[in-house]
Amino acid sequence: MTSTPDPDPTYTRADTFYAAVGGEATFRRLVGAFYAGVAEDPELRALYPEEDLGPATERLTLFLIQYWGGPTTYSERRGHPRLRMRHVPFAIDSAQRDRWLHHMRAALDGLQLPAAYEQTLWDYLVGAADSLRNVRDA
């Protein structure tokens, strides 16, 4: 069995959203700030079974990098994203979605991206978060 090497850290494609917003460093800052908020939120933190949020941080970072046009490391390591399937074990209702979006909004605001890029990323995050709800609200 051979392992897939890590992508070239100088990877750039100027025609991607990934490159336009600053590449890997931007997504690492976004996800790092997001999980800092999650760590301090007992209600949302309960959805993360791992004691260490580091692996979740890495998975989300690699997923977003790939989704927005960066290296395909996520799929090389984990296969197809299958987001809904991967989230089925967790009861996610509107309250959890809203907590998730609260922390992601704060993290996104911290990036200070140009308005068009910020809106594009936010629209995706809102849609993705909403699509993962799997518990009907009371």
TrEMBL record:
RNA-binding: is it a keyword of this entry?
no
Q: Which domain of life is it from?
A: Bacteria
Q: Which Pfam families match?
A: Bac_globin
Which InterPro entries does this entry report, sorted A to Z?
GlbO/GLB3-like, Globin-like_sf, Globin/Proto, Globin_bac-like_CS, Hemoglobin_trunc
Cofactor requirements of the protein: heme
State if Metal-binding is listed as a keyword.
yes
Keywords, comma-separated and alphabetical: Heme, Iron, Metal-binding, Transport
Q: Which SUPFAM superfamilies match?
A: Globin-like (SSF46458)
Q: Which family does it belong to?
A: Belongs to the truncated hemoglobin family. Group II subfamily.
This chain belongs to the protein called Globin
Q: Which organism is it from?
A: Jatrophihabitans cynanchi
